[in-house]
Protein 1
Amino acid sequence: MTYIERPRFSCALGGALSTISALPRVVPIVHATSGCGANLFGAYMGGSGFWGSGYCGGSSVPTSGITENDIVFGGSSRLNEQIETTLEMIDADLFLVTTGCMTEIIGDDVEAVLRNFKDSKIPILSIETGGFRGNSYNGYEGVLEKLFNDYSNENTKKRKNLVNIFGLIPASDPFFRGDLVEIKRLLEKLGLEVNTFFTNDQTINNLRNASGALLNIVLSRTYGISVAESFKEKHGIPYYVSEIPIGPTATAEFLRDISKLLEIDNKKVEALIKQENENYYKYIERISDVYADSDFQHYAIVVGNANNTLSITKFLYEDLGWIPKFSVITDELDDNQKAVLNDRFEKLNVDKEIKLIYQTDASKIEEHLTNIIEVQKSEKYHDALSPLFILGSSWEKDFANKVGAKILSVSYPILNRAILDRGYAGYNGGLHLVEDLLDVIFTGR
């Protein structure tokens, strides 16, 4: 068994709760011990840029709170009681019962309990989310698969320009809301309708009518693909997989890919790219004087999950002109997932100057990178990796101080920034990232 110090993900229940609480008027009912829901919500509310609890989340979430007596004699009656109380007190469009380790170990039959509420005006579904079923990313995928298989309308008429977006995990990707807003903005300029499911403009109807889409867009090489495959199997909707596009180079490539798949007029997409590029570079042009005169180019180390590490590295290398030296992916990945990421990384790392590292243990990341830097310092002629900038999480703060580097928190957990609608995707996101990096540099003056 692998020991992980300061993990950057939780169990499946944590991913399920953060996903459910991000959906409009969807409320979880936690069938577990009292500490499960509270601890997991605490980790995500604080660690994701103080995301907050949302509607009937956090300490307000209904929970069966089973005790020793329930563990011995079964907790089904307690769950039945909790569902009755929840229906009385909470106004929601959908309830989703999630399970913890203990209730799954003792074998509570949740579906049998739900049959007592088959006539409820408000739909109630259940999903098994015991910790042994995977991590928070599996929880995200499990929730969406359950909703699209058992809740979405099967016979929704296909809508010519409708697309769904998957792959950005609430809370685990702290900037998921701002990223979704920007991607939606760009796709709408191509004449598309966009289901993001998690932004403020969405309702439960977006979930119900998702099967009417012509294309599913997965903004991750590792997460959300199983959801898209399940969707394709049940509803016949094809899917497209990409990294999160950050900045003008990656975003233009993304928009061209989408326009080809949906047969959008090439003149239309090129006009949009030209307009967005002009806007982007007008802002960059204004800061270029101080950037060049003060020599703000940095070496960089990027530490984050499989979703954002490659995207940020690509932006720093191709658009900002920085020199990334290490990209550290902190997720637990299987060999197939690593192979996919390795292939994408090789296409970016044409000069073989950037080293890709897979490591989940925070102390080992620090130890590994410190040893490399110290070895280089011991040589008479060496690349000093100075000035150095670390784009990581709050866990990298001590390491940054140790090696004299600047740091910007861009991946979970983020404990030193408040995130409202900030995002790094697309053209506006690229500008935000440049602005945030320069803010760190200027703040030290």
Note: Residues 247 and 430 are 4 Å apart (CA to CA).
Protein 2
Amino acid sequence: MDAWRISFARHAPDGRRAFSGEGARLYGGRWNSKGVAVAYASATLSLAALELLTHAEQRFLAGAPLAACRATWPDDLEVEAAPPSVYVRGWRRSPAPPALAAFGDRWIAERRTAILLVRSAVIPSEQNVLLNPAHPDAARIAYGAPEPFSFDPRLVR
């Protein structure tokens, strides 16, 4: 299976660094608390683009050098999917309910799997992918070289 992440090129000099989880560690996110490293990605490149459009300020995207990075792992790598009970009332709102970060923090601390599949708050029928860079199986994840990425100018005005 693959996962995609679009980063500012300066944060992705190589594929592995794009998935370091450092940004999420510094700022926290829907599925992790500040101080907890996890890499956010999407099951498709198009969802990764939509997630970036949703979260980044448009003025930073216009003309900014971006890179699309792919992570790939073998079919026999154990993957966890967040159970339906995790998606509490209002789970899509921003800021997210603390229960989501608590679940993600536990998943990371317990080192249950290297990969956690979660529903996208932007398109709930699609999946985002969390990668735990500290999990022993993270060594089995391959990272492709960053590819230049740009948005159609009609999307970023």
Note: The mean pLDDT is 94.
Protein 3
Amino acid sequence: MLEKSLAKLLKLGFRHFEFFINTFSELEPSYVKSLAHMLQEYHATVKSVHPFTSGYESLLLFSGYERRFEDTLEFYKHYFEAADLLGAKLLVLHGQRIEKQGDMPEEGYFEHYHRLLETGRAFGISTAQENVDKFRSSEPNFLRRMRAYLHNDCAFVLDVKQSVRAGHSPFETCTAMGERLVHVHINDNKPGKTCLLPGCGEMDYARLMQQLAEQNFSGDCIIEVYRGNFDDPAELLQAKQVMEHFQRQFHKLTAINPVFAGKPFNMI
């Protein structure tokens, strides 16, 4: 349960979160307000929300059936309302699976994304396209074309593991997102393992911090792994310490070099 996991992580010392909304009842204002109260007790923040309908966005948002798209825009207002109550500023979008791309041309995809972006903005929420394996967004060139078509009126989430799974360098994906990168899902990897806790693989975080600084990154980095990627909650604290080290490196880069205009970001 979301509230039980949140309580454990708050007690461990985590203060910045992305919430994965798991079902319809977790969008009810009374439930969302109870989560917000838990956060307030620890002076904690939610940076982003992730819809449980992500796996259906090919059908709901990008199928070309316009009535369903309009209905989905109305439904996604519940996510935006929940995000606003929590104090979050981002909704994470998966988008359309590659196998479904014949249902809609790229221009249509970009236009539908922008409609969702504009809908969220009415609530103070930005919709950020995540790179996801087996989705159109897994391709760096797709992200470049998206930026160009929308004249940079877009936002992106970089997920390290999803780049690796798609066979792309996370640094290439990061470059494709440019200064429209607003959020990062941090994890580690090594040959044969695409999703590990930070510090358990071979990811070059020093290089990533350098690149984020050069791209004027001013968003947040959130550790994102799955329950099967750790056995003991103490492992999460170790990963937190690893990333706090690199957060300090990022701060030094942006403080020393005035060319790097990105403000310090929150980690975890």
Note: The longest helix spans residues 233-256.
